[in-house]
Design goal:
22-stranded antiparallel β-barrel, disordered N terminus, mainly beta, globular
Length: 801
């Protein structure tokens, strides 16, 4: 019902707009550099009241259409520059007014100011992505990237740190536009929240992006700036839960002449606690689970930009991630007297150490024609993770112990070339080629001597070679624009188990088409229809046939014979801008999934205990999903703004489960179970500004109950509150946030297959966070035309992903 109503709303709204009569256009240049300035605010007023507005494009141009034939005041506003005012008169004989090239200059009194960090996070809907600029309201939500993700519309993080986008965990995580070889759940726990500048959600990427990620891409952009002189930003925070946890970051740069040096370092550490219980109704058993994780994470980003001349830029940077963790998992399984089963107690100690390092070299050449560029980029990613585990199990009066040692190593080499040619004012051609060589190696050593074949010494490699080329062509007319593209790919994967012959090979040549159609009746409204084909390739964790996780009754491992799953996705999005800084975005999507990868759960036939289970992965036939999401930024009053967001997704999920054979007590058969999984989420962020120094916030979150293949999960909800105070002329701020004030967050579930059971898990959701931010240094960014490089993402390039 929700899906149909939103479709009617989106398609019906297009007919509500009539063509207006005139337009105002122009171009903005920097006086000192004579270069065009992007992102300059153009405000159109009538009798002192703001009518509409726009921002300049990357080439400094702007055009505001569909204006009634009247006389307007046009203001050119840009932080650190003098505001300029013009008069534009639209008449029957002169409907289209051009202000020509406008040259603006910096305010002499602001040369020593620093960039002001946003108090409130903002959400901007761009052509192919939703961009969340991280403000202090998000950084105070928690110490790590994992903790703030649940505050992002359409993004969810479960109790184990697994991230999903629009209800689907098949999402690709990038850092500064580059992939990594580390597990996303672990990576997000290592990145301090204060090191994040922006988060990009790309739900339906075009053919110029790599096709991985069924539900899209989440790109985390770390802080970097190019201000003249020496500048910096220091953040420190402490979270009080059962034990205090600490996070801090320092962002610095030094710009002189043609060279800009930049760095961002951060750390977070502390002990986290979880607990849970599971009740088996058929045998009246109860599992009590206590988990503690003592984690340390360190992040460093270091780089340099060398502006050879106005047409050539060379950039290098490296991201260095290091993390250690000590996890203690205690499991007690208790049975009723005379049940025939012995009570079981297990203590497991996981000692892990990992690193994830990226090295990047980029060269950009700008031709004489505006927007005509050639980019080369080389990227090398090296990751290594180790885990030493000790399992000590007592069953009845007998105690056993075994040790596991796991080493995961991975390398990822990426070379890509991108070419952009604006053929004329309306048409743009983009071409690109990319080579990726990915290698993964897993070594597993154990002292286990039982019957389970997955707990034996093993060596496993999983390698991929991917070569691709893409082409996109787009045209922009007065109100309509379109883009067509295709990515051609040669893919080969090989798995080798225990250094023998190749145990699995998957090789194919395929094409990933994409199409975008955009309709903009005026500057404040945009409709977009898009299509793309994507792939989700099995990860190392999903394919390696050794222990991923284990308890006394459950062992989880991968399936080396997994094949990729493919998705065709159709989306329609609508963006409405109104007022000063207010907007609403809404979208609907439909996906067709082939060769779906899903979890399977079945009894372990290698043991005599009929309660032992195996959890793994397998491919299934076809599937479909659909959903919608709506989010907004709305300024109710000068002192009050809100950011509401809701999203809904539905998928006909398949999975293999074991069910008890009728008439037996210990015989099971594996059956394919299919359920309609519907997920609903709602968030509301509300900010109250008392004065220029003091502000308060309230955040509410609700996640509806979800029926799944393995278990049905119950609803979850919480309310956070916080306050911020600025001092020292806005150079310092102090923040406090009370998360989950009423201690309501928990993950509750129940299920019937293969056993009837109910359970609940809780974590340290109720916490208090204190943070401090201090900015120092001065200077203005004179290289606005190079702003794309500031984010280390090429918005118009294709090989980057």
């Amino acid at each position: 019902m929700y899906f149909r109503l939103l479709l009617v709303f989106l398609f019906g709204s297009i007919t509500l707009y009539a063509q207006n009569a005139g337009s105002i256009s122009g171009k903005i240049n920097d006086k000192a550099t004579a270069q065009p300035l992007p992102y300059v605010s153009i405000v159109v007023k009538e009798n002192g009241t703001t009518v509409t507005g726009a921002i300049t494009a990357d080439n400094g141009t702007f055009e505001i259409k569909n204006l009634p034939l009247k006389t307007y005041t046009v203001e050119v506003q840009f932080m650190g520059y003098k505001t300029q005012t013009f008069t534009a008169k639209l008449t029957e004989t002169d409907r289209n007014t051009s202000l020509g090239t406008i040259v603006i200059e910096e305010e002499a009194t602001t040369l020593n100011e620093v960039e002001i960090v946003k108090e409130v996070s903002t959400i901007e809907q761009k052509l192919d992505r939703k961009v969340i600029t991280v403000g202090r309201d998000l950084t105070t939500a928690g110490g790590t990237a994992s903790e703030i993700m649940n505050n992002i519309p359409t993004v969810n993080v479960d109790q184990d740190g697994n991230i999903s986008l629009r209800g689907n965990q098949n999402v690709r995580i990038l850092v500064d536009g580059r992939p990594t070889n580390i597990d996303p759940a672990q990576l997000l726990k290592q990145i301090p929240s204060t090191s994040i500048k922006k988060i990009e959600l790309i739900t339906n990427p075009s053919a110029k992006y790599n096709p991985e990620g069924m539900s899209g891409i989440i790109n985390i952009i770390l802080h970097k700036n190019t201000n003249n002189g020496f500048n910096g930003n220091f953040n420190a925070g402490i979270t009080f839960g059962e034990e205090p946890k600490y996070n801090n970051s320092l962002d610095m740069n030094y710009r002189v002449g043609k060279v800009n040096f930049f760095s961002n370092v951060g750390s977070n550490f502390g002990r986290y606690f979880n607990d849970g219980n599971v009740f088996r109704e058929d045998v009246n058993s109860r599992q009590i689970i206590d988990i503690s994780n003592d984690n340390e994470g360190y992040l460093g980003k270091f780089g340099m930009d060398y502006y050879i001349n106005d047409n050539n830029t060379l950039s290098v940077y490296t991201n260095q991630n290091y993390g250690t963790g000590l996890g203690i998992v205690g499991v007690d399984i208790m049975y009723p007297d005379n049940s025939g089963f012995n009570d079981i107690s297990q203590i497991t100690r996981y000692d892990s150490d990992n690193r994830n390092n990226t090295y990047n070299l980029a060269y950009k050449h700008k031709f004489a024609k505006e927007g005509h560029t050639l980019d080369f980029e080389g990227n090398y990613n090296d990751a290594r993770g180790t885990q030493d585990a000790v399992f000590s199990t007592t069953e009845g009066t007998e105690t056993s112990e075994y040790n596991d040692n796991i080493v995961d190593e991975g390398e990822n080499i990426t070379l890509n070339l991108d070419y952009v040619n604006p053929i004329n004012e309306r048409s743009t051609l983009e071409l690109g080629a990319e080579a990726r060589i990915i290698g993964n190696e897993n070594t597993y050593d154990t002292t286990y001597s039982g019957p389970n074949p997955t707990l034996q010494d093993s060596h496993y490699t999983y390698d991929m070679n991917i070569y691709s080329a893409y082409a996109t062509f787009g045209q922009k007319f007065e109100k309509i624009s379109y883009q067509l593209g295709a990515r051609f790919e040669s893919y080969k994967a090989e798995a080798n188990f225990n250094r023998g012959e190749i145990t699995f090979t998957d090789e194919y040549i395929t094409v990933y088409p994409s199409a975008y159609l955009t309709y903009s009746p005026d500057q404040n409204n945009m409709f977009q229809l898009s299509y793309s084909r994507r792939v989700d390739r099995p990860s190392l964790e999903q394919t390696k046939p050794i222990r991923e996780f284990a308890t006394p009754l459950l062992t989880s491992y991968g399936n080396q014979f997994l094949e990729p799953q493919f998705t065709s996705s159709v989306e329609m999005n609508y963006t409405k801008m109104f007022g000063e800084g207010s907007s609403v975005t809404a979208g609907v999507f439909y996906r067709f999934i082939n060769n779906e990868i899903s979890r399977v759960l079945f009894p372990d036939e290698t043991t005599e205990n009929t309660q032992d289970l195996i959890m793994s992965f397998d491919n299934f036939d076809r599937n479909t999903s659909y959903g919608f999401d709506v989010s907004a930024n709305y300024k109710i009053a000068k002192w009050w703004d809100i950011q509401p967001a809701v999203d809904f997704s539905s998928i006909s999920q398949k999975g293999a489960v074991a069910q008890l054979v009728p008439g037996t007590t210990d015989e099971y058969e594996t059956v394919i179970k299919e359920v309609d999984v519907a997920a609903f989420n709602a968030r509301l962020n509300s900010n109250f500004r008392v004065n220029d120094r003091l502000s308060f916030l309230l955040f509410g979150f609700y996640r509806g109950a979800v029926d799944g293949v393995q278990n049905d999960s119950k609803e979850m909800y919480k309310i956070d509150s916080g306050a911020r105070y600025t001092l020292l002329d806005n150079q310092m701020s102090i923040s406090v946030r009370f998360n989950d004030m009423f201690n309501t967050m928990r993950y509750g579930f129940d299920g019937t297959d293969p056993f009837p059971q109910t359970g609940e898990f809780r974590w340290e959701s109720r916490t208090v966070y204190f943070g401090i931010n201090y900015r120092f240094g001065g200077g203005k960014n004179r290289a606005m035309q190079r702003r794309q490089r500031d984010d280390n993402t090429k918005q118009s390039s294709g090989g980057m992903f």
